[in-house]
């Protein structure tokens, strides 16, 4: 080696030095060697005394993320974070060996600020008359400005590397490879978070129970509410007896209130929310907050409340159903509190977060904030829909009422997903208001023609489901009966809601027997009316064209209107000439 160093220059020795370092790194212990699930490479076998050829060592493929366990505990604690590389967007363990497995990522190459995007240092040529056109279209660089380091582009902090799935969701709004979704294990809430909350001693815990205002019953985590309520009762009793009892604090956060009509008063909404939460099993609520991450409503009061409840070293858990808005809420809190930037992936796709993500720098002191994967509710209708169908069902703008004035023997359909029949009524008129996405078409007609609607219009005029084959894939069409009563025609008395879709608000002054049809297994609940106001402009019988269809019709009719306008203008000119 000394002879080589004497006979070669330093630049020629660099490749040899790199190769020696590579060979040395393979003979040392890797950061993952303490995991028994990852087998050691064969050239580390101590029984093999003969050294391997240099070509074998150099060309041996090795990935530190090989055989990583597919769990969803994410970066729950520092030990896991140091052992595995975790995606900061969704919490899945990252690996760079197999693009067909969850967590695959590509590490971006480093860029030299002196050569990367030189266009930022370029200046347009002055528009002088003595310059020709070809020179005016060019760009020149001022050598003095380029050489001075003070005029270089200000280096921005590097964005964290995320997995390919998060990258696709952030930039394209869809999952990169749908087949990988089936490889992800279910999130075991009881094992990861539930056992921590059930401990009688330890760090103080605050549970942020996040619920979607536009789908309250479908997104309300009943299992979590029951577990936390039972833990609070058990630990409270132990604490009163002088024993160790760590009582969790439960904060109910109702997100996306900007989707509800502005005419709804916050006082009425909070009273309605507390009533529904009590019926859902949340008997020990510490506080209730109505927030909008998009409009920045209610974030300050929420943060102040959480900080006071968690203390300087508490754990805060954001828990909720899929697509309830947990990651969006945490990102909004990060921007609200001192401009802290979080990198959680946001997308209108259920199940965006895959593992527990510890969010740094949002809450003061040593308080830890965790974003957890969305809890799957198999009784939500969105779990059976495709991505394209989910985009139509998803409510993204303020809800507008669509009201029908009907009587016995008539039905109202929301797309091909839900139908309401008026079977018997003690009054002549019943007001039915559909609260759902504006992209879903409606239909009102006689109940006797309902069977032909399924055969002739489901998957066509009534979408979703999109396509005739999807109608059979969604399951069996089943009926559920309700007996209701009301005391006013001016406002709705009760709601009949379908999890993940929307609801019918019914207003009448009397009694009625209603039937609701939807696919087998979808949760249908009867509740007090959330939005009592109805529209005073009634929908007509037949099909109500959805917003997306009306936009398509407008776009297709624009050329026709332009040609008609030009023809009229030419006719007017000809008449003036005559």
UniProtKB/TrEMBL annotation:
Residues 433-530 form the NOA1/YqeH-like C-terminal domain. Residues 552-578 are annotated as: Disordered. Gene3D superfamilies: P-loop containing nucleotide triphosphate hydrolases. InterPro entries: GTP-bd, Mito_lipid_metab_GTPase, NOA1/YqeH-like_C, P-loop_NTPase. Residues 558-568 have a biased composition (Basic residues). SUPFAM superfamilies: P-loop containing nucleoside triphosphate hydrolases (SSF52540). It holds the Pfam family MMR_HSR1. Residues 569-578 have a biased composition (Basic and acidic residues). Residues 316-390 form the G domain. This is GTP-binding protein BRASSINAZOLE INSENSITIVE PALE GREEN 2, chloroplastic. It comes from Prunus mume. The gene is LOC103326371.
């Amino acid at each position: 080696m000394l002879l080589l160093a004497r006979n070669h220059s330093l630049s020629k020795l660099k490749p040899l030095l790199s190769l020696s370092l590579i060979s040395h790194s393979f003979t040392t212990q890797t950061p993952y060697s303490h995991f028994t699930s990852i087998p050691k490479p064969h050239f580390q076998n101590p029984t093999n005394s003969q050294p391997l050829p240099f070509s074998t060592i150099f060309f041996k493929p090795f990935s530190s993320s090989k055989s990583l366990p597919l769990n969803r505990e994410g970066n729950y604690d520092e030990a896991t974070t140091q052992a595995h590389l975790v995606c900061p967007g969704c919490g899945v363990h990252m690996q760079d060996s197999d693009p067909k497995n969850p967590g695959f990522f590509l590490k971006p190459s480093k860029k030299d600020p002196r050569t990367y995007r030189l266009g930022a240092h370029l200046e347009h040529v002055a528009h002088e008359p003595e310059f020709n056109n070809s020179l005016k279209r060019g760009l020149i660089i001022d050598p003095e400005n380029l050489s001075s380091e003070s005029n270089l582009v200000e280096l921005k902090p590097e964005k964290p590397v995320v997995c390919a799935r998060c990258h696709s969701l952030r930039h394209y709004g869809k999952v990169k490879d749908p087949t990988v979704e089936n490889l992800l294990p279910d999130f075991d809430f009881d094992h990861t978070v539930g056992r921590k909350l059930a401990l009688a001693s330890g760090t103080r815990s605050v549970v942020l129970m996040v619920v979607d205002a536009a789908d309250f019953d479908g997104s309300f985590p009943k299992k979590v509410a029951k577990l936390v309520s039972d833990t609070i009762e058990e630990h409270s009793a132990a604490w009163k007896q002088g024993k160790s009892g760590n009582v969790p604090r439960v904060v109910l956060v109702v997100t996306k209130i900007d989707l509800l009509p502005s005419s709804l008063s916050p006082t009425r909404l909070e009273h309605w929310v507390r009533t529904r939460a009590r019926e859902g099993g949340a008997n020990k609520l510490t506080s209730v907050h109505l927030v909008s991450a998009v409009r920045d409503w209610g974030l300050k009061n929420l943060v102040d409340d959480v900080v006071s409840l968690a203390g300087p070293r508490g754990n805060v858990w954001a828990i909720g159903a899929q697509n309830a808005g947990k990651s969006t809420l945490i990102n909004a809190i990060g921007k609200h509190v001192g401009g802290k930037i979080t990198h959680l992936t946001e997308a209108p796709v259920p199940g965006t977060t895959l593992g527990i993500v510890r969010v740094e720098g949002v809450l003061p002191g040593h308080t830890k904030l965790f974003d957890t994967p969305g809890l799957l509710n198999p009784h939500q209708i969105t779990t059976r829909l495709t991505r394209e169908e989910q985009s139509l069902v998803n409510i993204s703008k303020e809800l507008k009422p669509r009201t029908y004035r009907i009587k016995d023997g008539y039905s109202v359909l929301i797309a091909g997903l839900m139908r309401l029949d008026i079977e018997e009524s003690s009054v002549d008129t019943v007001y039915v208001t559909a609260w759902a996405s504006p992209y879903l078409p409606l239909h009102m007609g006689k109940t006797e023609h309902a069977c032909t609607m399924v055969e002739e219009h489901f998957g066509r005029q009534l979408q979703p489901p999109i396509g005739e084959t999807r109608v059979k894939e969604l399951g069996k069409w089943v009926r559920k009966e309700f007996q209701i009563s009301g005391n006013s025609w001016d406002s709705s008395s009760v709601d009949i809601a379908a999890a993940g879709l929307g609801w019918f608000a019914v207003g009448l002054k009397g009694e009625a027997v209603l039937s609701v049809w939807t696919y087998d297994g979808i949760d249908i609940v009867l509740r007090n009316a959330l939005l009592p106001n109805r529209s005073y402009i009634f929908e007509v019988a037949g099909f109500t064209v959805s917003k997306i269809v009306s936009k398509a019709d407008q776009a297709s009719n624009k050329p026709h209107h332009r040609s008609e306008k030009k023809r009229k203008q030419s006719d007017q000119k000809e008449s003036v000439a005559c």
